[in-house]
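Re: the 275-residue chain
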Amino acid sequence: MGKIYHVEFPGLNLKFNVSPIAFKICNIPVYYYGILISTGFLLAFLYVIKNSKRFNLEQDSLIDVIITGTVTAIAGARLYYVAFYTGDTFIKNPIKILFINEGGLAIYGGLIGAILGGFVVSKIKHLNFLVILDVASLGFLIGQAIGRWGNFTNQEAFGTVTGSIFRMVSENTSMQPVHPCFLYESTWCLIGFILIHAFSLKLKKYDGQVFLLYTLWYGTGRFFIESLRTDSLFIPNSPFKISQLIAAIAAISSVSLLIYNYFKPKILHFRGDTF
């Protein structure tokens, strides 16, 4: 089954034996990373379809958006990862860019790809893009909460050394207790989904509001969680990381629009065929 990681959470008195590979088909490994991302996508898809009526969206048109958005999300996630990869693996062997089953998908790239793909289809079909963003953002939180556990099975994307009760130890951390950033982000997304879903049921005032709450919530959490990670790229001559910059821009932009729209409720209420 490949490499086995012996993972411990000493503060919680938990121990796991974790393999990145779930099983093999004709000697081809199937990774938990891919299974978890697929599971997250499936649950997000089911949520979006089930709630389409509540957001006044036709299921058939929404499925077209989802299919296109999924393809562009995968492409965006992989291209973003490759673009910021610091090694020379993809230069020496470009065909490896296609091996997404081995891991290497970036959430930011996936979000950008999904939004661009969804925008194109919504324009073609004259759909209200902001409403699509509202329901999709809740699906994003579901997918992110589950997909982050792929970092656990791969034992990657962890943080700095810590004495926190949640500290994690494994061979990949050099047996040092580190922040389990995957756990922080997964929990943050789960809490965000619960709160924003509840908000969308009764308190939503205009199209795009739920999406702005999502980008504010996720951007804020990602900014602080990213500060703990040890594998992120820094902005040259700066103590901040590229992911932190993107998160900060998303959060600040969202809160600015939310405040502005509180006083002028129509600023984001565009028609789907004119946005």
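The CA atoms of residues 159 and 229 lie 4 Å apart.
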